[in-house]
Structure formats: structure tokens, C-alpha cells
Amino acid sequence: MTMTDTGERPRAGVREAIEQGRTALGIELGSTRIKAVLIGPDHAAIATGAHDWENQFVDRVWTYSLDAVWSGLQACFTALAAQVRERYGVELRTVGVLGVSAMMHGYLAFDGDGELLTPFRTWRNTNTGAASEQLSELFGHNVPHRWSIAHLYQAILDGEEHIGRLAHLTTLAGYVHWKLTGRQVLGVGDASGMFPIDVSTGGYDARMLARFDELVAGRGVPLKLADLLPAVLPAGEPAGTLTAGGAALLDPSGTLQPGAALCPPEGDAGTGMVATNSVARRTGNVSAGTSIFAMIVLDGPLSRMHPEVDLVTTPAGDLVAMVHCNNGASELNSWAGLFAEFAAALGVRADNNTIFETLFRSALAGAPDGGGLMAFNYLSGEPITKLHEGRPLFLREPGSTLDLATFMRTQLYSALATLRIGMDVLQKAESVQLDRMFAHGGLFKTAGVAQNLLAAAINTPVSVGDLAAEGGAWGIAILAAFLTERNGRTLDEFLTQSVFADARLDTAAPDPADVAGFEAFMRRYRAALPIEQAAVEHS
């Protein structure tokens, strides 16, 4: 079964499912787009809605305003409801179940009256280096810059005034869920990006909680971290119902009625795992958008702590090695915009899909090793390569050939290079084995290009297919459906048996010439990192 709506299903049956509430609604707040997907009993999309938004760099902090959160959610839901009305001639008055997902990590801090204490600090911020280093040493567990606990401790180190009034911490998904239901909870996958999880208990690590409380007490900050963090729930557990106030926040027109059950809110990494059926051990997926990251479900713990690897969990609570790179496809988007502008200046009009496909396909003819060209896609800092800020760079060796094909291959290689550094830790230092690797996100929309280059970068077959066509918003809708369709099954069993049984996949094996070419590119990339560092220091 294809996971997207083909327009071929009988409209009367879909209309009946909508009217009877036999639907699941998934909403995901991504870095550049808020998206909603409504699915029916067969798990295929009935309708979608979307709203584009962008973060702001304010006072050297990447942020989104809470007003933008709600105006964006309302625009997204309005577009979804309009599509339901147009396609099926019915108002979207109710949904059976609902789920909220959003970009992981970051820092949303509230006082006892529910007032935001400081602007939302997103995952993209890398100003928490001191906190990250100290907490990683204290816990013996890698604490990345973007984790909520790193933001909290950095605020304590910096003596920020708001710490004395702090009553509640959460993520963006947790915040939206709280406002829709009144409950301060998180799915375990999203929670694992706030504070380390003990996979044996499914909750926050008690030993590390105690160590943190002792640490901050020594700095004169008497707080109990467990009281600040949201409660943790695994996939399949009920997490509240949509209140009248929550329904009005999503749909100010008053058409949407309260009462829908909500699943635990999750992070975009977890919904990506669901959307690619990658929650079983020895499976993994790569998601590429504004950031790029790999999620590998482990057989067991790693031998030691690695600063390039985060330990998080699946939405079911299984241990995951996460390689997260702050910089993904944004620089590619900028170059595509430049080429589109040039084409328009010549009087050539082409839509974005055509422009991207043309540029991406040209990369297949590029020199396998990048032909003496080099690029860094760092719009923001990149902890894996120890850069607190970024400067996008393109450079080339004297005598290199500057042609479109090799230029585009170099840009695509650049988008994958930092991921490769982290994957080397897992595949080489830890000998982690993978049975399946899936890829999803905008980078992989042009068939057989980024997919093939990723296969070369990690020397592993990479699959793409219809299973992730609607992305994380569809993934959280599936997690919502799991609430009522679980029937005693694990999440892996539910996905394999009920959601992906007939999914189609296209798998690309690594090409030996591309594998060798990417290896050569990476040697030059590592050697050129001091150039990127110098650009940060001197511009």
C-alpha cells in the first residue's frame, strides 16, 4: 500500500471515516515548515496542510516566537480543513486521535504562571559549550550542546536571572501538547533529548538527576530537576485529550470539537524513525533537511562515551545512537536559488522541483572525489567538528575544473561530510552493524542522487520509498493511531504488520568508485577544516 493519498479511494468511504472520527491527525513543527497530515483507517493520507516559517537570529540566539508557533499552527490546520472540505465536501469537526511532534531539544522555560521566561532557544544554538563539556564529564554520558539540560546549566553558569523563577522546562512539542491538553508530558524519544534516559526504567536516569541537583546546589541554586521536567511516556500510552481551549488554539473558527485522544508528543527524530519503519534493532535512518542526522537502533550499549554520538531512544524506549549535524540542506537551497535567479535573468522560467532535479542529476556526472573542489555548508555552529559558529565556504585548488556537475557533487558531499565523521565512530570504532538503512527528507526527493551518494558515504545500502512520503507529520499520525490499534503489540510489530506490510522500497548499493571518491573527498575535507575555523575567527 502506498502511504500517500492517490485520489483513487472512494470519496464516500473517506467522508464517512472523517465524519465518524475514524482518523488520526499528525502535526509536526519542523525547522522551516509546519505540516499537518490527516490519515484514515488504512493509514494513508486523506489531506495535508502546511505553513512555511523561519527561525530568527535575535541577540545571537536562534529562536521562534510563540506567536509564530500559534499563527503557524492555525494556518496549517486551516489549510488542512480547507482541503478536507474541497475534496470530500465535509467540515473537519473531529478527529479520532491526534499527535504533536516538533524539532527536538532546545529550551523552553516557564514560571509558575506558565509565562515564558526567556525566548525559545532552539537546537541550532551552540553557545552551551561549557555546560555540555562539564555535564558530559559529570555524567560519563555525552550531553550535546543542543540538549535542554545543557541550556539550563549554561543559564546557571551565566547567572541568568530567570533561573530563580523557573517552574517548568519542556521542548517545542511538549509545549504545544501542554497547551492542547493541559498535561506536561513527553514521549520518551523527545524526553531523551532533554536529559539522559535509563532504558531499563524508561524514565530519566535517577543517578544523573541526583548528580545534577548536587552540582547546582554547590553553585547556590537549590532546585530539584525532576520537578522541572515533563513526565515521560512510551509510545502507545494515552497522553491526554484535546480540551476546548486546545481546540480553539488549533482552530479559532470553532469548527473543531474537543475530545480527541492524544499520543505522547515526540521529537522529529522519533517520528522520522516511525515514518521509515526504523524502530527495530540494527535498523537506522537518515533524515536530511535544515539539519541532517542518523538514528541507529543499537543491540546494546556502546563501549564508551563519544562526543560525536548522542544516546537517545526510539518512541518505544529502545536505545539509539544519534549522529546529529546542525547543518544540512540549507546551503544547497541557497545555491539552487542563485541558479534559479540566473535562469530567470535569461528569461527561462522553471519551478523549484525542476531546478533541484536538474542540479542534483548533474552531480551524477561529477568527479567522484570532488575534483579539487571543496565546500562547507556551515550556516551555524557544528559541534561534531568543534565549531561554535559557521561560515558557508566554497573553495577550489588551482588547476581544478569548475564545472556544474562536480560543483553540485561537492555541495552534496558537503551536506553529508559531517554525518560521515559521526558514522565513522559507530561503524569503525564501535563496529555497529546495520541490517537496514533508510533515507528521507527533501535531500532525497530526486531519485537516485543523494541516496546513491549517501550509500557511498557510509558504504551501506540505502533504501528510500513511499513509506516516508509525508515525513514526520505522517509519522506522528501513525503514533497517534497506535493508541487505538495497539492490541497488545509492540510498536515494531504494529508498524511491520499493519502499516508497512505492502510498502515499496528502492535500494541503492554503494558504488565502489563513489566509495573511493568519497574517501578521498573526506581526507581533503578533514585537512581543510582549519580554513573553516579561520573564517569563523576572522569574519
TrEMBL record:
GO molecular function terms listed in the Swiss-Prot or TrEMBL record: kinase activity
Ranges where the Carbohydrate kinase FGGY C-terminal domain occurs: 285-482
The species this protein was found in: Actinoplanes siamensis
Domain of life per record: Bacteria
Pfam families: FGGY_C, FGGY_N
Keyword vocabulary terms for this entry: Carbohydrate metabolism, Kinase, Transferase, Xylose metabolism
Family of this protein: Belongs to the FGGY kinase family.
BP GO terms, sorted: D-xylose metabolic process
Protein name (record): ATPase
Residue ranges of every copy of the Carbohydrate kinase FGGY N-terminal domain listed in the record: 24-249
